[in-house]
Amino acid sequence: MAISGTGNKFSGAVCLLVLFLTISAMSTVSLASLKVGYYKHSCPSAEAIVRKQVNKALARNPGLGAGIIRMHFHDCFVRGCDASVLLDSTPGRRSEKEHPANNPSLRGFEVIDAAKAKLESACPRKVSCADILAFAARDSAYKLGGINYAVPSGRLDGRVSIEDEVTQNLPPPFFNTAQLIQNFARKGLSTDEMVTLSGAHSIGITHCSSFSNRIYNFNSTHPVDPSMDPHFARELRRRCPAPTSNAPTDPTVPLDFVSPNRLDNKYYSLLNSKRGLLTSDQTLATSPSTASMVTNNAKNGALWANKYAKAMIKMGSIEVLTGNQGEIRGNCRIVN
Ligand code: HEM
Ligand SMILES: *[C@@H]1O[C@H](CO)[C@@H](O)[C@H](O)[C@H]1NC(C)=O
After folding, report:
1. Residue 118: how many CB atoms within 10 A of its CB?
2. Which end of the chain, N or C, is more open, meaning fewer C-beta atoms within 10 Å of its C-beta?
3. Domain boundary among 127, 142, 170
């Protein structure tokens, strides 16, 4: 593992990180079933093929990298990292991608499809869609933030995807810190990992509807959420219609106004200047249980990047299917 773009002086820390990851991989049941270099013999070019497709897509539209990182999160939190988020609905069953948390905002499906098509010609039925997504999320972090890490692989694809299961498992944008901590704990992720992973909101966009309650008629005593900078709120009101205006469109704004296509720790400085978009972002800076984590991440970008890599590997191991628990799809949208 190496954190590129951070210079040689961090190589010592990186070595320690490799050691730590090796130890944690041996002590965690779900991680133990996954393995770095899983496709070394069955499809040696697997990871290179995925990276090439991701680089090609992101060169045209870096926003797709944000979409892919988010897609991996949405996959792992619902039925584990089993590519259930990629399955299309079937007659009589609406799949996860139909849920309002995913439709219409989730993006990047075509990048995964393109990688899968290349892999099916190079090594048919060898590389799972769940692994493609995990690799692609890593490749997006490398392209957009210079953050590189080795992805343990060997996940299998599930055969079930149910729209309603999204509601019970994914945190909505209006959650407070206590609710976020509980939601991530149910997936085996710590408070620090939750704060670290929220740093992914340093790239990409949000629809106005995900936060407009904070800038229009917040409550009966405060027209605007007092945890938001009033100048920033005014700028957002300029770009977002009031929810009551029956506006036909739901515009998008960048989650990080400073560097929207750079995966970095600017997100945390923005929180400390009351410029978080979602309630679930800003609450991390205002809550006493997470405020110091936000400040530490704001101060030390290299440390945050290391923690991000580790936390993504852990997230990528949630309830994975191995052995005879799943299959390797021929098409990521359809079960075999
Ligand atoms: C902590 C709880 C979280 C909540 C409540 C949350 C919620 C949201 C919401 C509401 C959006 C905007 C969707 C839209 O309106 O278009 C969003 C975008 C995004 N989220 Fe999260 N999220 C959380 C954690 C995460 C995590 C753990 C990751 C990845 C590690 C992540 C990655 C992203 C990315 C990259 C975007 C931008 C997507 C794009 O531009 O297409 N989020 N999130
Ligand atoms: C409105 O929000 C503020 C800030 O969160 C809070 O202190 C106040 O109690 C709320 N007022 C009402 C009436 O809910």
Report:
1. 18
2. C
3. 170
The residue whose CA is least distant from atom 3 of ligand 2 is 222
Whether 93 is covered by a domain: the verdict is yes
What is the distance between the alpha carbons of residues 262 and 202, in angstroms, rounded to a whole number? 7
Domain that holds residue 199: 177-314
**162 and 184 belong to one structural domain:** no
In this prediction the pTM is: 0.92
Residue 25 has what pLDDT?
A: 41
In-domain check, residue 304: yes
82 a known binding residue? yes
Average pLDDT over residues 299-312: 98
pLDDT number for residue 246: 79
User: How many distinct helices (H) and strands (E) make up the chain?
Assistant: 14, 4
Starting from the CA of residue 191, give the closest ligand: 1
Strand partners, 254: 205
Q: How confident is the model at residue 305 (pLDDT cuts 50, 70, 90)?
A: very high
**Which of 315 and 4 is assigned the larger pLDDT?**
315
Catalytic annotation, residues: 74
Q: Is 250 annotated as a binding residue?
A: no
**Structural domain total, the chain:** 2
